[in-house]
Write a sequence for this structure.
């Protein structure tokens, strides 16, 4: 029996006990509410501006399960259009990316301009007697479209706050940590694969530095990377140390190892092949401290822009929902236009070997998420919530530059922050309600 929407969603996230009810990971009613209250309302990452530099360039993306076309119209304005003809609903664009002058529906031939306007209707004169009001039957447009430092987002909800407000200091910092590394462009081709898991478990994992030494033991044994067991003597100090978790508006968070000045000193002496050396950019780039601020300078973890955009290394990953128990993973790889071809290839090589369908890591992760998702379906297993109490009651809240964060040993505060925000989004009927009722990051005390 579906029971997911029967009670307030906050009841599924127990703040006192730090637990999350398993029902939210496979229940159809919960899932459908997520599509409505989270994906159809949030700012969703579409693409990078480097993917659609010229008028007519387009890239096909998703908002929830719905196909949308991110494009640039004749005036060079960014447009995000629902990829569904207004006549019988057929897709008007089937290619994943390209350049077009217009979008012709292959069913009966209605044609739409790059700005979504209906510009051509076969039989307009004879069959419609020139009575069809074309101005009313354009493609459905996003409520708002905007880009921040080249990263293009869209929301279907015109009541949503502007992008910069939605991102807030933590969302902006999440993008700054990647965007400020160079003059970035996205490498052609997005890696896509599906994993049979709930999208939230995939998001949850991006903050999880607890699993690596166990889940990825075989990957590390292969020598592909230094062993990450925090207690291993081979583990570099910057892994064993303190973790910084940053908690922002509407569920954005950053979680992972803190990048201290001593850690950067050590990295200076690491071989150039160590991919963590990329952290040195924050020391080497003039003005980085002003852009990132004191909190950001030491935030070395993984950012997630709520709901599903993870920025890691030189990659952006989307965890796209395709049903309560199917997630499509998209990997975009970015390179600095100003470095040599060899250096760009090195970045792509590293990216491909970390995550994605051919990576060392996500194969292991996917198996776990699949099993975790299956076990949320069982009528017995469902009686028992999942545990998120690692570090609970031990993290002193700090606040600087308008940002709330904790510096603690490995913990689950970023994951739990995400679920608390999830409940806020799910219980709020509209944007004004979400703005009023959302959980505000603490400014003092203990988490
Ligand atoms: Fe598009 Fe009929 S469905 S023209
Ligand atoms: Fe992993």
């Amino acid at each position: 029996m579906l029971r997911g929407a029967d009670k307030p969603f906050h009841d599924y996230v127990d703040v006192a006990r730090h637990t999350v009810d398993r029902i939210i990971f496979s229940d159809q009613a919960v899932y459908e509410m997520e599509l409505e209250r989270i994906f159809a309302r949030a700012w969703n990452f579409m693409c990078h501006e480097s993917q659609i530099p010229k008028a007519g360039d387009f890239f096909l993306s998703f908002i929830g399960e719905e196909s949308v076309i991110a494009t640039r119209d004749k005036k060079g304005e960014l447009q995000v259009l629902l990829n569904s003809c207004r006549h019988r609903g057929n897709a008007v664009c089937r290619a994943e990316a390209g350049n077009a002058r217009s979008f012709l529906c292959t069913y009966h031939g209605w044609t739409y301009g790059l700005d979504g306007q209906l510009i051509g209707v076969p039989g307009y004169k004879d069959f419609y007697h020139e009575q069809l009001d074309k101005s009313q039957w354009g493609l459905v447009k996003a409520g708002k479209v905007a880009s921040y430092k080249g990263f293009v987002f869209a929301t279907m909800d015109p009541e949503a706050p502007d992008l910069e407000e939605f991102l807030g200091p933590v969302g902006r910092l999440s993008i700054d940590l990647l965007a400020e590394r160079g003059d970035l462009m996205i490498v052609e081709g997005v890696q896509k694969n599906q994993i049979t898991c709930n999208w939230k478990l995939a998001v949850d994992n991006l903050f999880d530095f607890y699993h690596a030494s166990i889940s990825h033991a075989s990957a590390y044994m292969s020598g592909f990377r230094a062993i990450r067991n925090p207690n291993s003597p081979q583990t570099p100090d910057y892994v064993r140390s303190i973790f910084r978790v940053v908690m922002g508006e509407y569920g954005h968070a950053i979680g992972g190892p803190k990048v201290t000045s001593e850690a950067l000193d050590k990295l200076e002496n690491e071989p150039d092949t160590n991919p963590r050396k990329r952290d040195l950019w924050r020391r080497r780039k003039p003005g980085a401290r002003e852009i990132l601020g004191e909190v950001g300078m030491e935030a070395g973890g993984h950012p997630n822009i709520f709901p599903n955009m993870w920025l890691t290394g030189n990659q952006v990953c989307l965890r796209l929902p395709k049903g309560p128990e199917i997630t499509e993973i998209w990997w975009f790889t970015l390179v600095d236009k100003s470095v040599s071809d060899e250096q760009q290839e090195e970045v792509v090589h590293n990216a491909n070997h970390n995550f994605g369908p051919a990576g060392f890591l996500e194969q292991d992760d996917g198996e776990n998420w699949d099993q975790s998702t299956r076990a949320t379906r069982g009528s017995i297993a469902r009686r028992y919530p999942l545990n998120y109490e690692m570090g609970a009651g031990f993290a002193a809240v700090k606040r600087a530059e308008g940002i709330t964060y904790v510096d603690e040993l490995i913990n689950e505060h970023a994951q739990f922050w995400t679920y608390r925000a999830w409940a806020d989004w799910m219980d709020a009927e509209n944007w004004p309600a979400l703005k009023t009722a959302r959980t505000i990051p603490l400014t003092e005390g203990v988490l």
About this structure: The chain has 13 helices and 23 strands. Residues 205, 211-212, 215-216, 361, 365 surround fe (iii) ion (ligand 2) (CB under 6 Å). The CA atoms of residues 143 and 157 lie 5 Å apart. The longest strand covers residues 327-336.
